[in-house]
Predict the 3D structure of the following.
Amino acid sequence: MYTVFLCGGIASGKSSVAAELSRLGAFLVDLDQVSRQVTRPGSPVLAQLAQEFGADVVDPDTGELRRRLLASRAFATAEGARQLERIELPAIREVLVRLLTDDDCTDGSARVLVVEVQLLDRIEELIPLVSEVICVTCPMGVRRMRAVRRGMDPEDFDARVANQPTDDYLRSHADTVLENDGTPQELVQKVRQWWDTRSETGWSWSRRQA
C-alpha cells in the first residue's frame, strides 16, 4: 500500500486535492473522522474530555460528543487547546499507526492510502511510516479571502492559522509541494500529473529510497 500524508493550512486547497485524489482511486482518511472514532460514545477518550471540560460536553440522551461546545471551551485558552491535544492525540496516533502498517485497513480496492492531515507537526514522528508527504501551499492573502468568503470570521481565521504549522515548516517536511497559486483547474492538473508519475513507477517511489 502506497501511503501519503496530505497536509496544508486552512483554505490552502488541501480538501480540493484530497477530493481529486479520491476521484483518481485513492482511499481517503480525514483526521476529523479519526477524531470522531476515538471519541465515540463510551470511549475512554470521551470520558477524559468530559472530566476535563465538563460533563455536559456529552449529550445525555445520545452519548455523543457535543463538538461545538467542546470547541468553545477548549479553544478559549491556549492551555485548553493543549489539554485537548494531550487527551486526543495519543489515541489518534494509535489509529494512524494501524492504518499505515496494516494493508487490510482499506476496502481492498485501492493501492493508495491518503491521510488528510491538518496539523503535521503534531504527528511528525509518524512521517517515517508513510511513503510520501504532499504539501499544498497557497498565498496567505488568498487563503484568508477564501475563508472569509465561506463565512469564517477573519479573527477566527487568524487564530486558527496561528495554531497551525507554517508553510515553511510544511515545505521542509514535504517530498512534493503543490503550489495552489493558479486556477482550480490548474491545481487539478498538478494532482493528476503527480498521480500519473507515481503510477508509471508502479507506486514504487518512496521517501525512504529518495
